[in-house]
């Protein structure tokens, strides 16, 4: 479910920093993976994409692996691996990626995202990408 990490009435910066802190203060955490559903005013927008912070080769590596595995598992249009200045990937001290799984504003993709089996396929794809990251594949 969608909940505030910091708490009610937090500023955007407080909320985003709280999300980073979850990773920073989790014992043994070595990767930060932020999972989202994309949205846009045009309901024809579609596909999945992953992001990393520019200048982070390890962030680029995990973003690329997550992108590859999501493309294989989800079957959606691949919008690519991109750099972004998103707070959570910029301020994480560990390699970080932000994955946009699909567009919740696209009727077909919203239907897929509401399917538990499809959600499991995407979760398993992300887990495979993490496994590949740590195994060096």
The level-1 CATH class? Alpha Beta
Overall strand count = 4
> Could you say what the CATH topology is called?
Aminopeptidase
Major sheet characteristics = 4 strands, mixed
The shape, in one word, is globular
Strands side by side in the biggest sheet: 1-4-2-3
Give the count of helical stretches.
5
Count of discrete domains: 1
Approximately how much helix is present in the residues? 40-55%
Q: Write the element-wise H/E pattern from the N-terminal end onward.
A: HEEHEHEHH
Proportion of strand residues: 15-25%
Question: Taking Cα atoms only, what radius of gyration do you get, to the nearest Å?
Answer: 15 Å
Descriptive keywords:
137 residues, alpha/beta, Aminopeptidase, four-stranded mixed β-sheet, 4 strands
In short:
With 137 residues, the protein is of the alpha/beta class. The protein is built from 5 helices and 4 strands. Helix content is 45%, strand content 19%.
Q: How would you describe what is shown here?
A:
The protein is α/β, with parallel strands linked by helices and 137 residues long. 45% of the residues lie in helices and 19% in strands. Strands 1-4-2-3 form a four-stranded mixed beta sheet. Helix 2 runs antiparallel to helix 5 (116-135).
Please render the helix and strand layout as text.
Blueprint (H helix, E strand, L loop, with lengths): L11 H13 L7 E7 L9 E5 L4 H18 L3 E6 L3 H4 L5 E8 L3 H7 L2 H20 L2
Parallel strand pairs: 1-4, 2-3
Antiparallel strand pairs: 2-4
